[in-house]
Amino acid sequence: MDALSASFAAVQVLAGDIEEAICTHAVYYSIWRRYSALPERFDWNTKLPNVKFYPLRPELVESTYLLYQATQNPFYLHVGSDILHSLEKYTKTSCGYATLHDITTKTKEDRMESFFLSETCKYLYLLFDTDNVVNRYSAQFVFTTEGHVIQLDPALRHRPWDKDTCHDCFLDNRRAIARINESFVSHSCPVYEQERRYALPLSRQRLGEIEALVGLKNTPATRSGGGG
User: Fold this and answer.
1) E strands within 86-132?
2) pTM for this structure?
3) pLDDT in tens for each of the 228 residues of the chain?
4) What structural domains and CATH numbers belong to the chain?
5) For a tag on the chain, would you pick the N or C end, based on fewer CB atoms within 10 A?
6) Binding site annotation covers 145?
7) 56, 88, 85, 71: which is closest to 25 by C-alpha?
8) Is 113 labeled as catalytic in the residue annotation?
């Protein structure tokens, strides 16, 4: 599997399939815990990376952010903190953050992709800034595939030459925004049970199975307390 697939958990969240998103995310986070980074490609059969570089991709952070927004489980704040710690420890340089040439040796390349700033850092920032306007009024915003935030302005959906155009939408944008919020009520994610918000998102047995699947269990990094 490749690192880009780590974004699939985010897609599952947006589709309302929270339980599957939790499982998908756990697989990629287990790999991160093993290497303190996510290899570009990981081989299920050997349980080892076969493309070892990590170009500071945002997909795991994006899924972590959306899962926290959907569940409000502090576990995902811990995940974000773990990722941030690894980035600071292994990729930070005197003038930016560097691609890891080899996640096993943590050797660096003289390169920082633009998506690190536009996506990886942005999703980490929004994960921890819980009172950010984007989080408080999430139904009013949409993210592009490159992490750019676009406000959904309903006034722009109306054409002045249409007879049934609501002209006051142009004059009172707040009422238009309220209509958008109402339209999202029936399409929101299912309510996440209150009692699960302060527990591990998966059972310890299930987490153990996932850890074994990616070779995290019984590795030297695990026995010494983690790879990051």
Assistant:
1) 92-93, 96-97, 100-102, 107-108
2) 0.78
3) 899 999 999 999 999 999 999 999 999 999 999 999 999 999 989 999 999 999 999 999 999 999 999 999 999 999 999 999 999 999 999 999 999 999 999 999 999 999 999 999 999 999 999 899 898 888 788 888 888 888 887 766 666 666 554 545 444 555 555 555 554 444 445 555 655 666 788 888 988 999 999 998 765 444 334 444
4) 3-223 (1.50.10.10)
5) N
6) yes
7) 71
8) no
